[in-house]
Amino acid sequence: MQILKHGLAIIVALSLFGCQASKPPIAPVSFVDIPKFMGDWYVIANIPTFVEEGAHNAIESYKLKEDGSIQTTFTFHQDSFDGELKTYKPVGYVEDHTTNALWGMQFIWPIKADYRIIYLTDDYSQTIIARNKRDYVWIMARTPHISDEDYQHMLGIIEKVGYDISKVKRVPQKWPTK
């Protein structure tokens, strides 16, 4: 009986420790105008998924479909600016229609990955996409380059919500000037 009590106490302590160690959900922005958010976003930096390792000239494009879902096209060149062009086409689904800032991103049915718009400039020129797990994050902009001041500001936001910013990598972007 004594062993059972100690075992139960250890299980309760470990579960409480697990609760204390988990981080609260990352709050999204208060509202996203979906049509305004659509279009091309250059990936400035990220904590990359295995698919994104070595990405150059990465662009995420969004297009609102008639059914309200968001056709996403993610393109990049693998390992160099002239490397193999890779294209992925997940579908986004707005999951909170009050804010439009919480999405599910579906690469493979039926799994929808957490996708949270946690920062968005008033002019919709820069954004941060995060996940509650704090495993991946994306800094994106409407232009392929942003100021170092803006980049540092966004890194600060990412760190404040609990990410290890030492894992954030800049995505090489090099485009012809017009």
TrEMBL record:
<dbReference type="GO" id="GO:0006950">
    <property type="term" value="P:response to stress"/>
</dbReference>
<dbReference type="InterPro" id="IPR047202">
    <property type="entry name" value="Lipocalin_Blc-like_dom"/>
</dbReference>
<feature type="domain" description="Lipocalin/cytosolic fatty-acid binding">
    <location>
        <begin position="32"/>
        <end position="173"/>
    </location>
</feature>
<protein>
    <recommendedName>
        <fullName>Outer membrane lipoprotein Blc</fullName>
    </recommendedName>
</protein>
<keyword id="KW-0998">Cell outer membrane</keyword>
<keyword id="KW-0472">Membrane</keyword>
<dbReference type="GO" id="GO:0008289">
    <property type="term" value="F:lipid binding"/>
</dbReference>
<dbReference type="InterPro" id="IPR000566">
    <property type="entry name" value="Lipocln_cytosolic_FA-bd_dom"/>
</dbReference>
<keyword id="KW-0564">Palmitate</keyword>
<dbReference type="InterPro" id="IPR022271">
    <property type="entry name" value="Lipocalin_ApoD"/>
</dbReference>
<feature type="lipid moiety-binding region" description="S-diacylglycerol cysteine">
    <location>
        <position position="19"/>
    </location>
</feature>
<comment type="function">
    <text>Involved in the storage or transport of lipids necessary for membrane maintenance under stressful conditions. Displays a binding preference for lysophospholipids.</text>
</comment>
<dbReference type="GO" id="GO:0009279">
    <property type="term" value="C:cell outer membrane"/>
</dbReference>
<dbReference type="InterPro" id="IPR012674">
    <property type="entry name" value="Calycin"/>
</dbReference>
<comment type="subunit">
    <text>Homodimer.</text>
</comment>
<dbReference type="InterPro" id="IPR002446">
    <property type="entry name" value="Lipocalin_bac"/>
</dbReference>
<keyword id="KW-0449">Lipoprotein</keyword>
<comment type="similarity">
    <text>Belongs to the calycin superfamily. Lipocalin family.</text>
</comment>
<keyword id="KW-0446">Lipid-binding</keyword>
<dbReference type="Pfam" id="PF08212">
    <property type="entry name" value="Lipocalin_2"/>
</dbReference>
